[in-house]
Amino acid sequence: MAARIQLSGCHVQYEADGYTGILSLDDELNHKKCGENQAVVSSGYFEQMRSKAFEVLETEAAEDEGKNGFYSMNNHEGFHAMAQCEAGLNGCDCAKCIVEGVDVVEKECVNSIYGQIFLGLCYLSYEFNPHEFHGDGGQNNGRNGIGKIAAIAIGGVGLLFFVFTLFRCLKKKDDDI
């Protein structure tokens, strides 16, 4: 019998003596979960943001900044990512495992807005929240600029109408005197 519990910043694995079960203790893929495909930003921009988020995790692990194998990156253009390595795994091996997890994401979770990758020595998780995304990702194609110009034009016409009406009222008072 074997079990594995992965929480944010905590990892517990149990395997009975002599059990040759489902959990590997190397860079082998134990389990993956890919979410729904994104349709909020262009595919190329989405992949670029995801890659930058994963780069942060890889760099932190390689530099082994005393985080005990837990690395996270919050809100890079709507991306949240975390990686966790087995206790006692050195920074280089942890970074290598994270790179393996990223490879799985890039091959099997191509445009998924969230994913979880369980390898034998590390865990990688990410999610994209479109409500926290601040860029346009090449999707707006100038629509926001046109909207702003239209709003300014309508406001200008309204202001001219107000000034013209005020001028007529003042002129009418002058004629009455």
From TrEMBL:
Q: Give the record's family classification.
A: Belongs to the cysteine-rich repeat secretory protein family. Plasmodesmata-located proteins (PDLD) subfamily.
Q: Which residues cross the membrane?
A: 149-170
Q: Which Pfam families does this UniProt record tie to the protein?
A: Stress-antifung (PF01657)
Which protein are we looking at?
Gnk2-homologous domain-containing protein
Can you say where in the cell this protein is located? Cell junction, Plasmodesma; Cell membrane
Question: What's in the keyword line of the UniProt record?
Answer: Cell junction, Disulfide bond, Host-virus interaction, Membrane, Repeat, Signal, Transmembrane, Transmembrane helix
- Residues annotated as coiled-coil are none
Membrane topology qualifier: Single-pass type I membrane protein
Outline the extent of the Gnk2-homologous domain.
28-131
- Signal peptide segment: none
Q: Which GO terms describe its biological process?
A: plasmodesmata-mediated intercellular transport; transport of virus in multicellular host
Q: Which superkingdom, per the lineage?
A: Eukaryota
Q: Which CDD domains match?
A: Gnk2-like
InterPro entries from the UniProt entry: Cell2Cell_Antifungal, GNK2, GNK2_sf
* KW Transmembrane (keyword) present: yes
State the GO CC annotations: plasma membrane; plasmodesma
Phylogenetic classification of the source organism: Eukaryota, Viridiplantae, Streptophyta, Embryophyta, Tracheophyta
